[in-house]
């Protein structure tokens, strides 16, 4: 069994460390989108040997997976989406871009606090140009069509107190009846509730045809 984990905007693979430790004995690969230095050894794109892998994306990581047409055999969305705008007004993302240009460390600190992960990384770890590019993805990427064309099994995890991807957005993207809800966890379920996430992933993986 092979899992490929893709983090969201403003994070790196360290987001997955505790969750990965609770996954069944398996091969685990990380994709690093280049926003924040550090984290486990990772690749910049979908691994070449992962055509039969279970993809696990967090937030923007799910959009990245859909946008790039990764050949996964199943998808786990952890607080993810197929497009960010117009569910969230573009002006909010534009405000983040302005903050990033004005004071990137302060902007990321405020973002991590709103997610529930204050002090996720040091200021010198930030790749400001890549973070700005990632905000462009949030504003302009639309993988709604790609999500509708996905024929593999999908597991969706979300948190009721997520202010970055609020519950009504998750329901609009995935359908309320398909989501497994945590009552809390902010926008960092893999950090706040890694065992809960891993349990759902394990059960999902075991239900897949061999």
Spatial shape: globular
CATH architecture: 3-Layer(aba) Sandwich
| Top CATH class | Alpha Beta
How many domains in all? 1
Low-confidence runs of at least 5 consecutive residues: none
Strand content: 5-15%
> Would you tell me the overall average pLDDT?
96
User: How would a crystallographer describe the biggest sheet?
Assistant: 6 strands, parallel
Count of strand segments: 6
- Global Rg: 16 Å
CATH topology description: Rossmann fold
Q: Can you offer a commentary on this structure?
A:
The termini are close together. This protein is an alpha/beta fold and about 210 residues long. The protein has a single domain (about 1-205), classed as Alpha/Beta hydrolase fold, catalytic domain (Rossmann fold). Strands 2-1-3-4-5-6 form a 6-stranded parallel β-sheet, sandwiched between helices. Helix 3 (about 90-100) runs antiparallel to helix 5 (about 130-140). The longest helix has 14 residues, at about 195-205. Helix content is about 40%, strand content about 15%. Helix 7 links the parallel strand 5 and strand 6. It contains 9 helices and 6 strands; from the N terminus they run E-H-E-E-H-E-H-H-H-H-E-H-E-H-H. The chain is globular, with a radius of gyration of 16 Å. The protein has helices at about 15-20, 60-65, 90-100, 105-115, 130-140, 145-150, 165-175, 190, 195-205, and strands at about 1-5, 25-30, 55-60, 75-80, 155-160, 180.
Condensed summary:
The protein has 210 residues and is an alpha/beta fold.
